[in-house]
């Protein structure tokens, strides 16, 4: 395995350095896509040792990831580790995802958060639990956390999947399109980290949008051939 970490980041200067250092200890290369930040995120990521791609304007998580993939595909990565820049994805859990990817050969390994009601804001708990259940049912997949952005994906699979998401619906799009292809999606339990920080996700709006887009991706758009 040759693993690149791809970290989309928008105004994460306070945490991005620790994310880069933690990821770099487990992967071959770390690429941070600064999605139009105004707080020094790019500089902090570079200082921590990451390769940095900087977008002039904030275009959304999906836009940042797709830009980053264009760079990843130029390299020698066999797998891409997706993780966020705010430390909600714990670097110490990376080895478990990589071990599952290596052992199973899965097209994608998702770090599934274990949701504990008492440890999460109510709106985020119910948005995740209900939203993931509805999306998993619509997609016909055995997943309890369809929205986790902490995942490892084979690059040979990613090259064949047309991606178009611009925002947080990227996670939904990738799961739906891989499920339609009959791809093997594995999962590894991870800790859900919530430290009282303000979320960039709007639970009701984004969950509704994800469900609508899941229907579109599931029934109206092609996802390509099967790839186990």
Please tag this protein with its features:
228 residues, alpha/beta, Spore Coat Polysaccharide Biosynthesis Protein SpsA, Chain A, seven-stranded mixed sheet, 8 helices, 7 strands, 39% helix, globular
Major sheet strand order? 3-2-1-4-6-5-7
Helix content: 25-40%
Per DSSP, the total helix count is: 8
Determine the mean pLDDT.
Answer: 85
Kindly give the count of domains. Answer: 1
Order of helices and strands: EHEHEHEHEHEHHEH
Oligomer: single chain
Largest sheet: 7 strands, mixed
Give the SSE map.
Elements: E1 3-9, H1 16-24, E2 29-35, H2 41-47, E3 51-55, H3 61-72, E4 79-82, H4 94-104, E5 108-114, H5 122-139, E6 151-154, H6 155-158, H7 170-180, E7 185-191, H8 203-219
Parallel strand pairs: 1-2, 1-4, 2-3, 5-7
Antiparallel strand pairs: 4-6, 5-6
Helix pairs in contact: 5-8, 7-8
